[in-house]
């Protein structure tokens, strides 16, 4: 049975958010576009975003048209390289997957087995942070799977799960790990299952050995370069850490019937949406900074003085978060092809510090094998360590400003270390080897 956050817990979360807002004084902002057909697909660390057809700059809150040769835009990265589409046959309105790299648009073309005149197509969804890989969905006739394109070798590869009836991949990281879903037969026909594929050609279903019991989206929506994946399973959001083989399923926010994570930053901030009514969504966000469970993004913004000036007071769908966890983009409720987009700036709200350069805590080594050394100008009161999925694995009190923390028992992976000193909290990102 799906659990929901109680009103008491939500009230406590809101109190923490308000307290955090007064302490952080972060410059949190929200831009809601007024033009229709401006739903966002992606945004990067510089506030450079893409809608389906246009480029966006958060600082100026302005849209500019894409290049004439580009038709649609699907994903971008910090290099401002882009996955999208170009026209293949204008007379018959046939598109082909394409990408912009170093400012130049290039067609990807088709597999030798494909017949673009007979509705075979490649739909791009993502470009890796290093711009090497592009992934999406492909089909040859009625056979649907994924594709992987290498921008360095210009090799296009069709990826079809031999055990599945169909599949698609929505994201790819620098390690070439593609994430999405595959179909598995069940008594009702087919059942989508969250899946990822590694460069050696192996398919992996998550969680291992467990199929969904509810027909929903059931997909992995995104993966970061730490090999941490997000998505939904049985109508609930999840985070899966490949390094530690940890699958964490989260509760639904109050009032939600279903929820999913769509994107995760390099520092472990996950965003997505909750279904709060018939064809009505509200954006959600998760990070240990905000508590143990996902919360509504509008609550975080309102707690930091931001007015939600959408027609229904909701933020609809959060589709992407920048790699540094500072920008979030999405679209309001309504028919997706026609709705308005929005973008939010979280400043350093999630990290718990306004300026990393002003941090009072230094630490070494990073990566660490056995002992993590912490040094601060203030007395350290306590240290807590969390997995990137929010599970506390270490908590101890101290009374010193030079502290050694033994992490030898922790599994390899990325961890968040919260250092409490003089009524302030600083969050450090540490890699355990």
Automatic annotation (TrEMBL):
Domain Secretion system C-terminal sorting: 364-430
Coiled-coil ranges (or none): none
UniProt keyword annotations, A-Z: Signal
Keyword Ligase: no
Signal keyword on record: yes
Source domain of life: Bacteria
Residues in the signal sequence: 1-26
InterPro entries xrefs: Secre_tail
Cited NCBIfam families: Por_Secre_tail
Name of the protein in question: Secretion system C-terminal sorting domain-containing protein
Organism (species): Marixanthomonas spongiae
Species classification: Bacteria, Pseudomonadati, Bacteroidota, Flavobacteriia, Flavobacteriales
């Amino acid at each position: 049975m799906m659990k929901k956050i109680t009103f008491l817990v939500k009230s406590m979360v809101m109190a923490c958010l308000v307290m955090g807002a007064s302490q952080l004084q972060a410059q949190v902002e929200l831009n809601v576009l007024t033009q229709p057909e401006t739903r966002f697909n992606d945004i990067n660390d510089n506030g450079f975003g893409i809608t389906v057809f246009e480029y966006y700059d958060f600082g100026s809150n302005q849209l500019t048209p894409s290049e004439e040769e580009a038709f649609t835009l699907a994903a971008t990265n910090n290099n401002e390289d882009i996955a999208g589409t170009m026209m293949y046959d204008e007379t018959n309105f046939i598109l082909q997957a394409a990408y912009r790299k170093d400012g130049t648009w290039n067609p990807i073309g088709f597999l030798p087995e494909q017949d673009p005149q007979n509705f075979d197509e490649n739909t791009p969804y993502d470009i890796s942070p290093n711009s090497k890989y592009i992934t999406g969905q492909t089909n040859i006739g009625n056979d649907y799977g994924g594709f992987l394109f290498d921008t360095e070798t210009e090799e296009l590869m069709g990826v079809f799960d031999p055990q599945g009836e169909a599949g698609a991949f929505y994201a790819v990281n620098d390690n070439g790990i593609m994430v999405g879903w595959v179909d598995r037969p069940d008594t009702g026909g087919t059942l989508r299952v969250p899946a990822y594929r590694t460069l050696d050609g192996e398919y992996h279903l998550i969680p291992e050995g467990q199929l969904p019991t509810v027909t929903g989206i059931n997909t992995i929506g995104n993966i970061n370069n730490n090999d941490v994946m997000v998505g939904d399973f049985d109508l609930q959001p999840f985070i899966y850490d490949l390094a530690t083989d940890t699958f964490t399923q989260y509760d639904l926010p109050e009032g939600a019937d279903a929820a999913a994570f769509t994107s995760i930053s390099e520092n472990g901030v996950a965003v997505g949406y909750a279904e709060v009514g018939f064809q009505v969504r509200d954006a959600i966000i998760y990070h240990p900074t905000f508590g143990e469970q996902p919360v509504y993004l509008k609550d975080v913004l309102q707690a930091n003085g931001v007015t939600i000036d959408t027609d229904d007071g909701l933020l609809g769908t959060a589709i992407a978060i920048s790699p540094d966890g500072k920008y979030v983009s999405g679209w309001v409720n309504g028919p997706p092809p026609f709705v308005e987009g929005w973008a939010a700036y979280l400043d350093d709200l999630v990290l718990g510090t306004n300026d990393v350069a002003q941090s009072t805590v230094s630490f070494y080594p990073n990566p660490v094998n056995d002992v993590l050394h912490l040094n601060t100008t203030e007395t350290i009161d306590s240290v807590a360590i969390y997995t990137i999925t929010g599970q506390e694995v270490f908590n101890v009190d101290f009374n010193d400003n030079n502290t050694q923390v033994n992490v030898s028992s922790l599994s390899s992976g990325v961890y968040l270390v919260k250092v409490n000193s003089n009524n302030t909290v600083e969050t450090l990102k540490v890699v355990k080897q």
